Amino acid sequence: DGHEMTWGTNHLGHFLLTELLLPLVEKSPEGRIVNVASLGHTFSPALDLPTIDDCLSDFKASIAYTKSKLANVMHAREMARRLRLRGVTTVTVNAVHPGAIATELIRDLGPLYKISFYVLALFLKSWKDGAQTSLYCALSAEVKGVSGQYFSDCARKTEAPLARDDLACKQLYDYSLKAVGLPIY
Description:
This protein is α/β, with parallel strands linked by helices. The chain is built from 6 helices and 4 strands. This is Dehydrogenase. Residues 1-27 form the signal peptide.
């Protein structure tokens, strides 16, 4: 698709799916959109949108990951704002940090990384525990009507300052619409 893989997989793909499903979600009496982010978003540098897909010069996978997760937090904030401006009160959108989870993401890593991961895994959440905050935001009556927020461990948390920059959130949203071939609104 012409996009850097981490950016395309972690942000643009979910962004496009959300945009395509939004008309159906808006017909629901209580639609909830939950973006999976990460605490890693707090370590992201500012998003330089013209070079966000650049994986040829000085590419670092960890930075690409943090940028994609920052984008998901910013997307939740901006989508919530746009829904409010349109008078849509039946749909909420929030971002969640599921926690550090023991997953199969290590399957393609070298043996040294795998050994390190298995030691670290003693301190990680199970996938069931990791799903709790997503489920909380999708189902709990406690967050009914709460939108544009960031959650971790089933509680509202403060997102990174970059994720609270309303102009940057708007610019990212418009950039993402253009990147997936949708009109800017």
